[in-house]
Amino acid sequence: MSRPSDHIDPGQAAPAEEVRGVRLGVVGWLRWAWRQITSMRTALILLLLLAIAAIPGSIVPQRSSDPNGVTQYFADNADLAPWLDRFQLFDVYTSAWFSAIYLLLFISLVGCVIPRAKHHWDALRGAPPATPQNLNRLPAHLSASMPGTSPAEVIAAAERILRRDRYRVRRYDTSERLTVSAERGYLRETGNLVFHVALVGVLIAVGFGGGFGFTGQRVVVEGQAFTNSLISYDTFSPGRFFSATDLTPFSITLDKFTTLYEERNVNAVGQPIDYTADVTTEVRGSDPIKQVIKVNDPLRIGGADVYLLGNGYAPAVTVRDPAGNVVYQEMVPFLPQDRNLTSVGVVKLPDGLSKQVGLIGFFYPTVSAGHSGAFFSMYPDLLDPLVTFNVYVGDLGLNDGVPRSVYALDTSKLTKLTGTKTDLPSLELRPGETAQLPNGMGSVSLDSVKRFASLDVHRDPTQGWVLAFALAAVAGLLTSLFIPRRRVWISARATSGGTVVEYAALARGDDPTLSEALTRIATAHGSDLGLVRE
Amino acid sequence: MNDTLSQFSVLSLYSAMAIYAIAFILFTFDLARGAGREANAAAASDSIVQATGDGSIATLTRVKPDAATQPRGRGRLARIAMAMTWLGFLFQLAATVLRGVAASRVPWANMYEFAMTGTLIITLVFLIVNLKWDLAFVGAFSTGLVLLLLGLAATRYYVEVVPLPPALQSYWLVIHVFVATLGTGFFALGFALSLTQLLQTRREYRAVESKPTRLGWLKRLPDSAQLENYAYRLIIIGFIFWTFTLIAGAVWAEKAWGRYWGWDTKEVWTFIIWTLYAGYIHARSTRGWRGTRSAVLAMVGFGAVMFNFTIVNIYFKGLHVYSGLK
After folding, report:
1. CATH number, domain at A152?
2. CA of B36, closest CA in chain A: separation in Å?
3. A41 and chain B: CB distance < 8 Å anywhere?
4. A207 at the B interface (CB within 8 A)?
5. Is residue B322 in a domain?
6. Would you say residue A14 lies in a domain?
7. pTM, 2 dp
8. How large is the angle between the packed helices B292-307 and B224-257, nearest 10 degrees?
9. Does A65 contact B at CB distance below 8 Å?
């Protein structure tokens, strides 16, 4: 942090001791180390190091923000990736070296703030310093002669003027001259301290924030409901101090999901322009309420925030055995693959049919065929939907105890029966249609196509604190950069038939308007005494 | 109708660029003109002595007057160049407003528009600061940079008007992005002044050593200490705006993405820029870092701003993918 201009860096003033070769001892070394770390130069270097250390995190994918990118990076750079990982380059912002830099920086900052706060506290209670002997040596200086006035009335007026301008004032009189010493702008230093303390506040609040909160993701299909409990989340990451009892019981039902695509602007046909999730929420013990979640408009419920972060299609699929008994009936969320929402989904049928069957489905909301005959989606809305299924039989791998993603089918122990490189074409289904599985295993029906919303539920009880500290930092910054801290001295000396007045000012820190301010004071002083420039 | 408007917008922008090009040439000639001339600024004495009459208050001496108020004549070339810059600014303003009207939203939702609004703000900051201080010598840099960015935007970043994706439909787009352009405008001028400061320092050293220098054209300009003061005053304003950009961005990110800070690439670079300029402000009060080193920091800071705007926007993967380029 910037020091007042009269500050002397103790780290620089110390060498006399060392030159004499005095053994410092443990305490001495600690004191030396502390001086080094709290010196301005160290703080500045740490600040610049922090900027440099942040760079790799923008080049190498990070586990926190882009886990898939990390996986991809490992696949693409099999030799390099483990080395980068050894240096925590996939977790830059939680890495030992990044943390070391900012922790040292904050230690340096605290070590600087405490003595400065004390210094400032003393200054706030103390009086402005004694008037220098030679006022004309100061950066801003004016003088005037005022015939027909006495030094006493002149200096009294000066005191009045300065007080009116919110200066803190103290008289220093000698037999030779009467002087007033004044200082203003203590807020500049207060602001500076507030700024730096607020930064520490931000750091602490951010540090704790992750601990008490949680984030969870859940895919909800139209018509489905989800309750806020651990088991109903697809993924859930609790903070360190989080306990499951912190989850407020509430439920959210997705009544309807509406998307709007650009239709008229030829440069943007098919571009999404609105997503709206109409939901019914119910907090235990109160009546259900109809609410809306939109992309920039999260739902605040039960101390948590619910965000709309993704959406897609969920075909309703029914599978029957050869006798016509339903063995599977679900709305299966398909994951979007491109901007026209070609989507991929998986159906796993471990029981009910003669063999274990897996289906990999491709969904095209508005289907079209390319030259090669391959399907693609040409528009994201449901104009001409089609699902194709590739059928696999064999071992789904569900019984070996390894957790499997519901969105992926492990085909290593499966035999492909339909689709490319097989004798049979893929099953093709439009809503309401039914197709027979190969070998008379049963049938698959596409009953309808619904939409799903992927909801993120977050709770971060400290984010309000982070914001409050950040705003305090801005307020501190504004005062510390733009409120001028000035010392002004006015002296009055008797001459034959009048008084000679001297005005001088000294800025502490950057102060572009020092001379103007002094001129203004001198002018106001003159007119207060009823004098006019001739 | 909207097509017509955006075509007018492009036309107006091209006109602005042509006018800026003329202003750039004039500013450059004005700088070159200084090479053959002695500093006339020295004529303005450092102390102004006025006579005192009886019975009056009179200002007698003023030691070290604030050099900002020193009279420094602006040459004819510079005056014409400044007028051209104003004219170019008006055309660019029209272009930007038309683009906004054509799109029925703020004209800073993709890289083309951001470049257009950003350079408009750079020019505006330059023009307004020149009402207060005479910094016409920065004009060559300012118009040059604006021309370069506009050229890049018009040829490489141009996209047709398209509606906003849901993630950008927020009033925070208006606040967050606009404040970022304001910060960029002040940083740009700070960069130019710091660069001039470095050259001036070099010339001053050469002059002290009585060595020949090719930087004679800088004689007419303020001395390096004064340039540093100008740069500092502009950069702290930019820093405030940048701090606000950071906070507003975090508030918006919380609303749109469910977290206020996630080290997304653009967030990383916004943080890096903030840290660099924080370093700059501290450097000014660190022994051995005032002057040349802090000027270098200011320049590195603006380099990062430009890197963030171009390279990070286009080549880095992240959530801030709004360049509109495919």
Report:
1. 3.30.310.80
2. 32
3. yes
4. no
5. no
6. no
7. 0.87
8. 30
9. yes
Helices marked H in chain B: 2-33, 76-103, 111-132, 139-152, 171-172, 178-208, 224-257, 265-283, 292-307, 313-315
Range of the domain at A469: 192-206+462-476
**Are A337 and A383 members of one domain?**
yes
- The CA distance from B271 to A267, in Å, is 35
**A37 belongs to a structural domain:** yes
| Structural domain includes residue A16 | no
B165 touches chain A (CB under 8 A): yes
Structure ipTM? 0.85
DSSP B222-239: PPHHHHHHHHHHHHHHHH
Q: Which residue has the tokens 């800071």?
A: B301
Domain identity same for A236 and A131: no
pLDDT in tens, B193-251: 999 999 999 999 888 888 887 887 888 888 898 999 999 999 999 999 999 999 999 99
pLDDT tens-digit series, residues A472-500: 999 999 999 989 999 999 999 998 888 99
Q: Is B62 on the interface with A (CB under 8 A)?
A: yes
- The structural domain count of chain A equals 4
The CA distance from A43 to the nearest CA of chain B, in Å, is 9
Q: What is the pLDDT of residues A222-279, one digit of tens each?
A: 999 999 988 889 888 888 888 877 788 899 999 999 999 988 888 888 888 999 999 9
Q: With contact defined as beta carbons under 8 Å apart, do A529 and A523 qualify?
A: no
CB contact under 8 A, A2 and B55: no
- Number of structural domains, chain B? 1
Query: Closest chain B residue to A501 measured between Cα atoms?
Result: B57
Would you say residue B321 lies in a domain? no
